Amino acid sequence: MNLRSRILLCVLLPAFVGLSTVKAQQIDSLKIDLSRALEIALSENPTIKVADMEITKKQYAKKSAYGALMPQMDLIGQYQRAIKRQTVYFDEGFGIGGSVDPTEFTPDELKIVEVLGKMMGGGGDTDSAEGIQMGRFNVWSGGLNVSLPLVVPSLWKNIQMTEVDIELSIEQARASRIDLTNQVKKSFFSLLLAQASHDLFRKTYETDSINLEDIRNRYNQGVVAEYDVITADVRLKSLIPNILQSENMMKIAELQLKMLMGIDGEIPLKVVGSLNEYEQSMFHVIIPADTSLVNNSDLKQFNLQSEIAHKAFEMQKLQYAPSLVTSFNWTYMSQNNDFKFSTYRWDPYSMLGVTLQVPLFSGGQRYHNVKQAQIQLWQLDEQRKEVERGLKLSIRNNYDLIHKNIEQVVATQSSVEMARKGHQITLKRYETGMGTIVDVNAAALAVLSAELQYKNAIYDYLSAKADLEKVLGYDIEPVGNN
Q1: What pTM was estimated for this model as a whole?
Q2: Number of C-beta neighbours around residue 202 at 10 A
Q3: Which end of the chain is less congested by CB atoms within 10 angstroms, N or C?
Q4: Average pLDDT over every residue of 231-248
Q5: Cα distance between residue 337 and residue 140, in whole Å
Q6: 8 pLDDT exceeds 80?
């Protein structure tokens, strides 16, 4: 008896300590129902924040695409140092031969004629020309370059692609919200199921503990055999692993819910509601009957991706189109042989021009790019058909699961009532000596199994309904219990 008491104390003491700890922490606990859990998750989950940032990033990309149509202005500064200056020769030029009449030129002109003669060679012999070095060693330049695209069809198509890309990012963010809503719902229901299972095992343990004490008293009075005490004790101890496992499942479900909500794992949660409350309202809920997949996010994303691919195909074809760009250049240049900046002379140079570019031949690059874009369109079309078939199959399966689970809830609810009634009858028969402890244990096990099946049937219904809403593309519901 002392050994059994110590075992019982070791089992119940941690539970009582944990219970007192929970009561002490309830003041600081975060009370949540399904609506509150969804609200926190949709505002704090990192996935949602990243999706919203992606929309902002795409909006900046759109502005950047529009900026390509604006004038492009650049300030240019350049320095060049000549290591070896260029030498210039004149083959023919001024009609200066080997003989020159000095009386026809002034002394200064004679010097120039002499230099030109060296550049062209004496007597017309160009191979003997010495040439002249042009320019200076240091070349400094600075100015403004302006360019403006007038007719560039590929830029216009790129802007249209960025607009569709923003729509795709918005739809992807919506898909993230729908997926997160589905995960939060199922995680919340999993936590309710784990709590219900834990409460059921705890309640069964308490009831069986009372029954064990009663059987021991009857054994001490010589009414029942020792076998009954041993059997009841074994059944009681067999519940301990189930209690521990249900506690572990509660912790896992709670941590998963906290992770989806984007809150600290150390914050204690107090969940408001139970599976029984959802069972009371499940027969009043209208199951969505629209299976057109109009709001399905996967198909919407495929449609937007196909639109982007179609515009990319058109943009590749526009690579054959001519483009017209205007440009303006204003530059100041200085050439010198030293670094005395104060004595530099700066000469202006400016130019205004229009460039017309007509593509003729690129080695087949444009043709093959068009073919690649066309094949991508065909691929997306085939992938969309496959995804649509899979989604329709998923809807059909979820509808079947929902109806099956509703029937299962009704059936298990009836079986729970019958199992409880059978357990009461078995206890009465045992108390009157007409039944055995084996019959009592079997009846108690039937009650426990029926109640677990009942809780799981409710969870399966809620999970299937959440999956159906996800496939149909339903956004977050304002009311939590439905």
Answers
A1: 0.73
A2: 16
A3: N
A4: 90
A5: 11
A6: no
C-alpha–C-alpha distance, residues 212 and 337, integer Å: 111
CATH value of 2-70+153-317+364-472 in 1.20.1600.10, 1.10.645.10, 3.40.50.720, 3.30.565.10: 1.20.1600.10
Tokens read off for 345: 């002379």
Q: By the 8 A CB rule, do 27 and 461 touch? A: no
Query: What pLDDT is recorded for position 330?
Result: 94
CATH classification code of 74-84+137-150+322-358: 2.20.200
pLDDT in tens, 197-218: 999 999 989 988 888 888 888 8
Q: Encoding tokens for residue 60? A: 């900046």
Dist. CA 186–CA 468, nearest whole Å: 12
Q: Could you read off the pLDDT of 373-403 as tens digits, one per residue?
A: 999 999 999 998 998 899 989 888 988 888 8
Q: Are 273 and 481 in contact (CB under 8 A)?
A: yes
Per-residue CA distances from 93 to 12, 23, 127, 301, 438 (Å): 117, 109, 15, 73, 128
Report the alpha-carbon distance of residue 280 to residue 287 in Å, rounded. 15
- CA separation, residue 233 to residues 8, 148, 208 (Å): 10, 91, 9
Give the phi and the psi of residue 402 in degrees, each rounded to 5: -65, -50
102 by Cβ neighbours in 10 Å (0-12 / 13-18 / 19+) ranks as: exposed
* Main-chain dihedrals φ then ψ at residue 336, nearest 5 degrees: -160, 170
Residue 84 is predicted with a pLDDT of 87
Instruction: Tell whether the model's pLDDT for residue 372 goes beyond 80.
Output: yes
Listed in order, the ranges of the chain carrying CATH 2.20.200 are 74-84+137-150+322-358
